[in-house]
Specification:
Layout lengths: L7 E3 L3 E3 L5 E4 L15 H14 L3 E5 L5 H13 L4 E7 L3 H10 L5 E9 L2 H8 L3 H16 L5 E6 L6 H13 L4 E6 L6 H14 L7 E6 L6 H11 L3 E4 L13 H10 L15 H12 L20 H9 L27 H10 L7 H17 L5 H12 L5 E9 L6 E9 L2 E9 L2 H12 L5 E9 L8 E9 L2 E9 L2 H20 L10
Parallel strand pairs: 3-4, 3-10, 4-5, 5-6, 6-7, 7-8, 8-9, 9-10
Antiparallel strand pairs: 1-2, 11-12, 12-13, 14-15, 15-16
Helix pairs in contact: 1-2, 1-10, 2-3, 5-6, 6-7, 7-8, 13-14, 15-16
């Protein structure tokens, strides 16, 4: 659809007008496939609810055939998340995939099956080992099977940006004839330029019969840093659905970032006269939630949601902003969820002030149990530090907001002196039961980790151990990152505490919980002729 297109009816969204852009969020599917990322069921449900509140139109909840855990996640999100289309991924040539997707989506108010198959010469020859005619047959059979289970069917041409144009048009035509109502042409490996993507969508609209009666969708990866630019160019070419993720997470260099796309449309409405349903004031909150759950911090200079996105250090810039914010700010911080807070936190601050500070920092949805634990840790920290900075609060709240559903840190006693082995007495809770262990090691961290391996035996290898200070000063909290590797699966955990060794143990425990989620996930068999 272009600006002069006629409108049409879509099974999930009703009358589609030329200025309407569907936001398809794939944080829980493509985003979670990133190395080191994983979410348990409770975390996925929290994210799905937050995405629905944010105003996304479609939530891609997972790949049901991949594992029992993926099936359960899609099924529970379909059961509990209201007001959005819940989508499940399947392969066009996988009969089991289509059936699993349909069964997982059964409880949803509105459901979509998203099936895909590779269409580029490179993928067909080396990945699928199929002839083009076989791929066309699977497109027809896959979309027909999906349409028998739901009226809302999406088909994707994997590696579409590197597909022969004539063959791409044949594939799109076959998918539409078989019942697809959304056609996605992804730049799967982030190879395309904005000019490429605009031309591809314009070509499909011009050449494929029925293309003006379906939604064309863009899914752009960020390998060359062009994900958002390619998405905006795709809209110029006629796409009216954008597939994106919170914070731009995704495989390799990630996906086009939802918050950047949405704010580009809002800020440059003169160039992109399109509308979305996104409540932009919730962007920071959802970004923070995802960073907390995945333990992957947003880079400080990240557009829209990075902590420096609205910071001005240059004297010239500061002078201009004080006179008129529009001199250096093209959008207001408040428009994406930042707020100006003058609350100074210390040991005399009460629970109400702490809750207000959390809201100002983007943590509006903490339940009472987590809030109480975070407040308790805050008071303990305030007793030990002269000044509690916002970053201190963010670090400890992130630590408490994570779901540690199997293993939790309880207590640690250390003995350490120069020239002698260190010893650690550790208590953790495993499924609610206290487990204690004592161990020695070459230093306090080594001793604590050895005790943790005794308390919860495992064979995972420590692949990364990194410690940084949350703020300045010798009394600063430590923020530790631990990466574990087991059978090729990577997970990252984070922890924060005024005691560096405790922060390390918290990070290790967080990584172990994520590893338990990864263990349950297996890749489906390769699809070949």
């Amino acid at each position: 659809m272009s600006a002069d297109s006629t409108s049409f009816n879509h099974p999930s969204f009703g009358r589609m007008t030329p200025d309407r852009v569907i936001i398809f969020d794939t944080t829980l599917r493509d985003g979670e496939q990133s190395p080191g990322f994983s979410m348990n069921l409770a975390e996925k449900l929290r994210m799905a609810e937050a995405l629905a509140t944010l105003g996304v139109d479609v939530i891609e909840a997972g790949f049901p055939v991949a594992s029992k855990g993926d099936f359960e996640s899609v099924n529970e999100i379909a059961r509990h998340t209201k007001g959005v289309v819940v989508c499940a991924l399947a392969r066009s040539g996988g009969a089991k995939d289509i059936v699993a997707a349909g069964e997982a989506l059964a409880p949803a108010e509105r459901r979509r099956i998203h099936n895909f198959i590779s269409t580029s010469p490179l993928h067909m020859k080396y990945k699928l080992r199929m002839e083009p005619e076989t791929v066309l047959e699977l497109i027809t059979s896959g979309n027909t099977a999906a349409r028998n289970l739901t009226d809302d069917v999406e088909w994707s041409a994997e590696d579409g940006s590197r597909t022969d144009p004539d063959f791409l048009c044949r594939c799109v035509e076959a998918a539409i004839k078989a019942g697809a109502t959304t056609i996605n042409i992804p730049d799967t490996v982030g190879y395309a330029t904005p000019e490429d993507m605009e031309k591809i969508f314009a070509m499909v609209r011009a050449r494929v019969p029925g293309a003006d009666q379906v939604i064309l969708s863009a899914h752009n990866h960020n390998d060359l840093g062009l994900g958002v630019a390619n998405t905006l160019a795709s809209l110029r070419g006629g796409a009216r659905q954008v597939e994106c993720t919170i914070n731009g997470i995704g495989e390799r260099a990630g996906n086009a970032a939802l918050e950047e796309i949405v704010m580009a449309l809002r800020t440059r409405h003169d160039q992109y006269p399109y509308t979305t349903n996104i409540q932009t004031t919730d962007l920071l909150k959802v970004s923070r939630m995802l960073a907390t759950i995945t333990s992957f911090d947003v880079q400080p200079n990240k557009a829209i949601v990075g902590r420096n996105a609205f910071a001005h250090e240059s004297g010239i810039h500061q002078d201009g902003v004080l006179k008129n914010a529009a001199t250096y700010e093209i959008m207001t911080p408040e428009s994406v969820g930042w707020s100006r807070s003058s609350l100074v936190m210390g040991k005399h601050s009460g629970r109400a002030a702490f809750r207000d500070k959390l809201k100002a920092l983007g943590y509006a949805d903490m339940d009472d149990a987590r809030l109480n634990e975070a407040f308790s840790r805050f008071k303990d920290l305030a007793d030990r530090k002269k000044v509690v900075y916002d970053d201190d609060i963010v670090a400890l709240v992130d630590d408490e907001a994570r779901d540690h559903d199997h293993i939790r840190f309880a207590a640690l006693d250390l003995t350490s002196s120069s020239g002698k082995p260190s010893s650690a007495a550790l208590t953790i809770q495993v499924d609610g039961q206290d487990v204690q262990a004592n161990a020695t090691g070459n230093g306090p961290v080594d001793a604590a980790f050895n005790a943790l391996r005794q308390a919860f035996p495992h064979e995972a290898r420590l692949a990364l151990f990194s410690v940084g200070a949350v703020t300045e000063g010798t009394d600063a909290q430590a923020r530790t990152t631990v990466r574990l590797e087991e059978n090729g699966k990577l997970v990252d955990g984070q922890g924060a505490d005024a005691d560096t060794v405790v922060s390390a143990v918290r990070a290790y425990v967080h990584a172990l919980n994520k590893l338990l989620v990864k263990r349950a996930r297996t890749a489906p068999e390769a699809l070949t002729a």
